[in-house]
Design a protein that fits this description.
The complex is a heterodimer of chains A (205) and B (213).
Chain A: H1 2-23, H2 33-43, E1 55-57, E2 64-66, E3 71-74, E4 77-82, H3 88-101, E5 105-112, E6 115-123, E7 129-137, E8 146-151, E9 186-189, E10 197-198
Antiparallel strand pairs in A: 1-4, 2-3, 3-10, 4-8, 5-6, 5-9, 6-7, 7-8
Chain B: H1 13-36, H2 50-60, E1 69-71, E2 74-75, E3 83-84, E4 86-92, H3 98-110, E5 115-120, E6 140-147, E7 153-160, E8 164-170, E9 201-203
Antiparallel strand pairs in B: 1-4, 2-3, 4-8, 5-6, 5-9, 6-7, 7-8
The chains are: A alpha+beta (205), B alpha+beta (213).
Chain lengths: 205, 213
């Protein structure tokens, strides 16, 4: 009887553990070849991946969060920051020129006194669209005066994630905030940069 | 009777081995659950749905906000099934005096449908917890609201110390709809005019997107 009880208990433990490993940690996706290739292409981009222009941060490919159980994932992405001490509009303008040469197209711009944000897009080899952001601003509180970041979607991102635009919307106007300091807040287009993390799969899917 | 009797809470040698094995089994189950990310007894009703993704998307594509980061609603660690609102935020430099910086941002936000329902001058009494104003007493705080396409409300907290911090939130789909707050006139605040005449606060800092709203 004792042996039967122990066997039963151990079986229950095994079944419970298996159920939890399978069922409680849904969608904590690791990267596959698609994500590796997108990441590699972003790092190899002559503009965003230029190590001579600042400190480059690329995420570790295997990371997930799952509590109480739904997973999120890191998207292929690269971030570069620098503290050069220039005027924000000049810093943004310099990065913008290099981005355009590398094949990036602007889709959103936001200008403000002491601050410029530009979102750009570029197709990758697998047909996906990468999105980048240039952000330049005054202020010691962020630790940099120019930041560029690029993100592509993860293979686990489904149709609940809107695809980035492939071109600027009709009527898009870059304005003059890459030529001189803006004296008011203005913008054109729609912000395009996705978060560098995606997921989880919607609970109603 | 007395010799073979096992007192409550004091296991006999015969039962202590069985208890140890059962204890080990339970420990293994709990460990497996923890490793797998399970949180026993926690409601998962708040796990994000497509509604939550659409609300977060509304923050991500807001051109006034142009947020540095957006996070969809997520479980609040250590709670019994509570969820953080969808959140977007950014830090911005000052563009003049605190009054000038705040006025410029509120005016720009109005172009995409935001309007103020609360304001507090630096030095005014800080409201109690669980409101939309949990900032330092020395901060200049304004809270904006915007109606989303699904009829829910987004909230944007603007606080100024030595820079401008913007935190915008949207409610989890499980949060009951809240009443639309009334617009306030920020020019009534003493800190918005050079003479310093006026009120220390206007409006009520109701949190429109909190789990407990």
């Amino acid at each position: 009887m004792m042996r039967m009880t122990r066997t039963t208990v151990l079986s229950l433990v095994g079944v419970a553990s298996l159920l939890c490993l399978v069922g409680c940690s849904r969608s904590a996706s690791d990267w596959n070849e698609t994500d590796d290739n997108r990441q590699a292409e972003l790092v190899a981009d002559p503009w965003i991946g230029d190590e001579g222009r600042g400190d480059i941060l690329a995420p570790a490919p295997h990371w997930s969060r799952s509590e109480p159980g739904e997973g999120v994932w890191v998207r292929p992405s690269v971030e570069r920051t620098a503290d050069r001490g220039g005027e924000p509009w000049q810093e943004a303008s310099e990065e913008f020129d290099l981005a355009v040469v590398a094949g990036w197209e602007p889709v959103f711009v936001r200008c403000a006194p002491g601050e410029v944000t530009v979102d750009l897009v570029r197709p990758l080899q697998d047909g996906s669209t990468a999105t980048a952001r240039i952000r330049a601003q005054d202020g010691e509180f962020v630790g940099w005066d120019v930041m560029v970041a690029a993100v592509d979607l993860h293979h686990s991102d489904g149709d609940w994630v809107p695809a980035p635009p492939t071109h600027a919307p009709a009527g898009f106007d870059l304005g003059t905030c890459l030529e001189e300091e803006a004296d008011a807040i203005s913008w054109s287009g729609i912000p395009a940069l996705p978060s560098s993390t995606g997921g989880p799969v919607p609970a109603d899917d | 009777m007395g010799g073979g009797r096992t007192m409550i809470g004091v296991p006999s040698p015969a039962t202590s081995g069985r208890g140890a094995r059962l204890g080990a089994a339970v420990t293994m189950v709990v460990a497996a659950l923890a490793l797998a990310g399970c949180t026993l007894g926690v409601s998962r009703d708040g796990e994000p749905t497509r509604v939550d993704f659409e609300r977060a998307e509304a923050l991500r594509t807001d051109p006034w906000l142009a947020a540095a980061g957006v996070e969809t609603t997520r479980y609040t660690y250590g709670t019994n099934g509570q969820y953080e609102p969808g959140t977007a935020g950014t830090l911005r430099p000052m563009t003049g005096t605190p009054a000038e910086t705040m006025a410029a941002e509120v005016a720009a936000a109005a172009e995409v449908g935001w309007w103020p329902y609360y304001g507090r001058c630096p030095g005014a009494p800080v409201p109690r917890l669980q409101t939309a104003d949990y900032y330092s007493g020395t901060d200049f705080v304004v809270v904006l609201v915007r109606e989303l396409e699904d009829g829910s409300l987004a909230q944007a907290e603007l606080s100024i110390s030595d820079h401008l911090k913007v935190v915008a939130t949207v409610a989890n789909h499980m949060v009951s709809p809240v009443e639309m707050p009334e617009e306030v006139d920020l020019s009534q605040l003493a800190c918005t005019n050079e003479a310093g005449q006026g009120l220390p606060t206007v409006g009520t800092p109701t949190n429109l997107t909190d789990w407990w709203s």
